[in-house]
């Protein structure tokens, strides 16, 4: 197979943050606004993710819309995993954050032990792709827990939390491009941090002013970000076709 992961450009990071925001607001929209509740929403989204992930891993090359739809669904399911643990199983956000961090390290360790690399530039076997998506799911669950921990339990608020995580991403970028830090390590650190950044932005936009948000609601926020994602993915798909055409 050809590499199944997109090139890491500024567009990659923009769509990633937008997808993580939709993961936060989309889960809230289905669970609260549509009244599915956490269990019902979790079942529906898990089925959709399973179907889309099967579609993704059976492709032999990177297809932008398939990849990014899968990423959005993984983002929503990762959010729901954390929400179910915290709301239904009474797991504290600090314990959830620590637990997902340990699980992610274990996933990376298993991936490296099997493949001897964590590079996303060589996702060209089925096994590597499954390791990749498992790690992605854990980063979303971890990011959701960390974002809620900072904004809600530590009472930093959604805006300050978003700024804090954006600053942390800036530090990672400086380490990579200013001090030539390891490319694989800095990529995964930035990938993890974009999740709580997106979650904080989603809550900031969608939550009511009384709760520290801007009151746009989950419908408007999810719809706006999905529209932007669709536009960017369409652009990248057309650009890719032009690049490979004779």
Automatic annotation (TrEMBL):
Coiled coil: none annotated. Keywords: Membrane, Transmembrane, Transmembrane helix. The keyword Oxidoreductase does not apply. Signal peptide: none annotated. It holds the Pfam family DUF347. It comes from the Bacteria. The keyword Transmembrane applies. This is Membrane-anchored protein. It comes from Roseicella aquatilis.
